[in-house]
Amino acid sequence: MANKSLIAPVKRVAAAHELLWNMTLRELRTKYRKSVLGWTWSMLNPLATVAIYSFVFGHLFGADAPIGVHSGVRTFALYLLCALLPWNFFMLVTNTGMNSMIGNAALVKKVAFPREVLVFANSLHGIVQFSIELLLLTVALVLAGSYFFVWIPVVLLQMLLLALFASGLALALAAGNVYFRDLGYLWQIFSQVWFFATPIVYMPALIEGKVPNWVEMIMKLNPMAVFAQGFRRSMYDNSFPGWDNLGACALVAVVSLVIGWSIFTKLSRRFAEEL
């Protein structure tokens, strides 16, 4: 019975693959509608963020990037981007997914279709934007001396696992946001804390011995820290992230998707009434 309850939603979404594709195209077309620069903003936004963090942490606080293990690269902006872009992708999927039910309330109330499609359409849209950003980062890393071409399949696998992890959270957040509208504000606060608890703008060694042991343990178990470390090992260090890293990413991705989808399926029965 448990297996059937898990497989049934997957079959529903698979049967609605054409709808999923059309919803994804809609998100891609409306992303920068009537914007002069259009998709250029997908490149300018992370570059502006990197410029700010590089100035504050790199120049004002004297933060220095480590030397790439096999690449020999030592550029703070590139070290930052290898973790910042996965974080931005994670936040894009969770934020847009969380608001997908409320933003399409009229459609949810009037048309019968697998509601998960709305969340997954945002995830696929996020993958497209993430791919563009990673392509530009790849060019920058190659120019800097990190020829990590052999690890591109590993990077793609990490992208997939991160997408599954973020989608699972997005499903749970989307369902909870229908019943509890303050969830969006709580998520903003929580995500800010989560960002600085993840070694993105600083190196993991920086916190060793400077925080209580239980805090350090929680920070090491942080799933986004594991993903950030994996992307940095593959792209910045030009090395294999390790089976322990990939295994941990796969585990949190599966757990997140199963739990998030189960919550969504259970709560989706009253979406039309609550919206």
Describe this structure as you would to a colleague:
This protein has 275 residues and is an all-alpha fold. It has helices at 2-15, 17-30, 41-60, 76-98, 100-103, 105-110, 116-144, 152-179, 183-197, 213-220, 223-236, 243-267, 271-274. The longest helix has 29 residues, at 116-144. The chain is globular and about 55 Å long. The two termini are 30 Å apart.
Secondary-structure map:
Elements: H1 2-15, H2 17-30, H3 41-60, H4 76-98, H5 100-103, H6 105-110, H7 116-144, H8 152-179, H9 183-197, H10 213-220, H11 223-236, H12 243-267, H13 271-274
Helix percentage range: over 70%
Task: Calculate the terminal CA-CA distance, rounded to whole Å.
Answer: 30 Å
Number of strands: 0
When the domains are counted, the total is 1
Overall shape: it is globular
Query: Element order, helices and strands?
Result: HHHHHHHHHHHHH
Q: What does the radius of gyration come to?
A: 19 Å
Low-confidence residue ranges = none
Main sheet, how many strands, which sense, barrel? none
From the helix content, strand content and strand pairing, which structural class follows? mainly alpha
Strand percentage: under 5%
How many helix segments? 13
Task: Calculate the mean pLDDT score and round it.
Answer: 83
Concise structural overview:
With 275 residues, the protein is mostly helical. The protein has helices at residues 2-15, 17-30, 41-60, 76-98, 100-103, 105-110, 116-144, 152-179, 183-197, 213-220, 223-236, 243-267, 271-274.
Features:
mainly alpha; 275 residues; 13 helices
